[in-house]
C-alpha cells in the first residue's frame, strides 16, 4: 500500500474519532514502508556500484536486499524505473543547502565542496556504469537528470543571478553554459582521478578560470 494511501487512512480515522492506537498503527505502517523502500534503494545502489549495470537486475537487487522479487515489483515496474528511483534517492536534492556567502567566489567554492563530498560516486555511476541504461532507453545523462528531477532549479544559475543582483557580473554576459563551467571541470577531475578533488584545485578552477571568464568578460563590456 502506498504511503499516500496510508496517510489518507490515518487522516480519515482522526476525522471520525478513531482510537489513537489505530491511527498510530497506520503511521507505524507508513514508517515501516518508508524504511523498507530506503533499504531496497540502498541495496540497488550498492548492486550498481559493485557489479555494474549489466548485473543490475530485479533478481540481483532482491537477493542483495534479502527479499523477494514481488516486493520490488510492487514498487517499480522494471529495472529502468528502479534505477531512476535509485538516482533520486542518492542525490537527495531536498537535503542540499544552497550556499549564500555574499560573493560569487564564496558561493561557487562552497557548492563545489558540497559536490566534492557527496557526488563522486554518483557522477561516476551516471557516466561509467550507466552506458547500458542509456543504450537500452535511448536517453542521455541529461535526460535522466530531467526525468528524475523535473523543474529542479539550476544551482549555478541561481548563484550567478545573485552575483548579478550584487553588481559583481554584467547580466548580458553570462549563459547557463558558462555558469556550469566550474562544475564541469570538477567532474573532469572526478573522471581522471576517481578521488575527491583537493580544495586547492577547486580554488584554482574558480580563481584562474571561472571568475576571469565571468567577471573579466563583464569588464570588457
Give a quick rundown of the structure.
With 221 residues, the protein is mainly α. The protein is built from 13 helices and no strands.
Task: Write a structural description.
The chain folds into two domains: 3-91, Homeodomain-like (Arc Repressor Mutant, subunit A, Orthogonal Bundle); 93-220, Tetracycline Repressor, domain 2. The longest helix has 32 residues, at 20-51. It has 13 helices and no strands. With 221 residues, it is mostly helical. Helices cover 73% and strands 0% of the residues. Helix 2 (20-51) crosses helix 3 and helix 12 runs antiparallel to helix 13 (199-220). Residues 1-10 have low confidence and may be disordered.
Shape, per Cα inertia axes: elongated
How many H/I helices?
13
CATH class group of the largest domain: Mainly Alpha
Radius of gyration: 22 Å
CATH topology group of the largest domain: Tetracycline Repressor, domain 2
Question: What is the makeup of the main sheet?
Answer: none
What's the N-to-C terminus distance?
Answer: 59 Å
Oligomer: single chain
Poorly predicted regions: 1-10
Number of strands: 0
Count structural domains. 2
Order of helices and strands: HHHHHHHHHHHHH
CATH architecture of the largest domain: Orthogonal Bundle
Percent of residues in beta strands?
Answer: under 5%
Question: Helices, strands, pairings?
Answer:
Blueprint: H1 3-15, H2 20-51, H3 58-65, H4 69-73, H5 79-91, H6 104-118, H7 120-129, H8 131-137, H9 141-148, H10 155-166, H11 176-179, H12 181-193, H13 199-220
Amino acid at each position: 500500500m502506498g504511503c499516500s494511501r496510508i496517510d489518507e487512512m490515518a487522516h480519515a480515522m482522526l476525522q471520525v474519532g478513531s482510537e489513537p492506537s489505530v491511527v498510530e498503527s497506520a503511521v507505524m505502517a507508513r514508517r515501516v514502508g518508508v524504511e523498507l523502500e530506503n533499504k531496497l534503494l540502498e541495496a540497488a545502489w550498492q548492486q550498481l556500484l559493485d557489479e555494474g549495470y549489466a548485473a543490475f537486475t530485479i533478481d540481483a537487487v532482491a537477493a542483495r536486499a534479502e527479499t523477494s522479487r514481488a516486493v520490488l515489483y510492487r514498487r517499480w515496474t522494471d529495472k529502468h524505473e528502479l534505477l531512476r528511483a535509485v538516482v533520486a534517492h542518492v542525490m537527495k536534492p531536498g537535503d542540499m543547502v544552497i550556499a549564500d556567502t555574499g560573493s560569487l567566489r564564496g558561493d561557487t567554492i562552497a557548492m563545489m565542496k558540497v559536490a566534492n563530498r557527496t557526488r563522486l560516486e554518483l557522477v561516476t555511476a551516471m557516466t561509467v556504469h550507466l552506458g547500458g541504461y542509456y543504450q537500452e532507453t535511448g536517453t542521455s545523462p541529461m535526460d535522466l537528470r530531467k526525468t528524475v528531477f523535473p523543474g529542479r532549479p539550476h544551482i549555478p544559475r541561481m548563484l550567478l543571478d545573485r552575483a548579478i543582483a550584487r553588481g559583481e557580473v554584467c547580466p548580458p554576459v553570462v549563459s547557463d553554459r558558462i555558469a556550469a563551467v566550474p562544475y564541469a571541470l570538477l567532474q573532469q577531475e572526478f573522471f581522471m582521478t576517481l578521488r575527491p578533488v583537493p580544495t586547492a584545485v577547486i580554488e584554482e578552477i574558480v580563481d584562474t578560470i571561472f571568475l576571469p571568464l565571468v567577471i573579466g568578460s563583464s569588464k570588457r563590456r
